[in-house]
């Protein structure tokens, strides 16, 4: 589908007179015929405007996802609604990065948890044993 507004250098909300003037100036006879059949008839223009909005939204979504047409499609009718890729990180990629970071922290904790748990248990047991031994020794020495 051609973007008739783009090809005629018009805004989608252009007046009927602006469309007539742009069509009259158009050097391409096929484009002129398409524009006259589509934009000159109000019912056809309403349908085209709804479709134009949907296809423009799809083009914006494709750009947000970093999708573009291949080099052999550049400049073709299929590329009318394509936008350059959006280099901002998508919310999905941001979420994946955050989850990956959390998983790496968890894995690091799992790796060190075993040895430190044994050291902690040994130290606690030794401390309890020492305290119990001192208490027992003091208790026997007094009695």
TrEMBL record:
Keywords: Membrane, Transmembrane, Transmembrane helix. The keyword Transmembrane helix applies. It comes from the Bacteria. The chain crosses the membrane at residues 116-140. This is J domain-containing protein. The lineage of its organism: Bacteria, Pseudomonadati, Pseudomonadota, Gammaproteobacteria, Oceanospirillales.
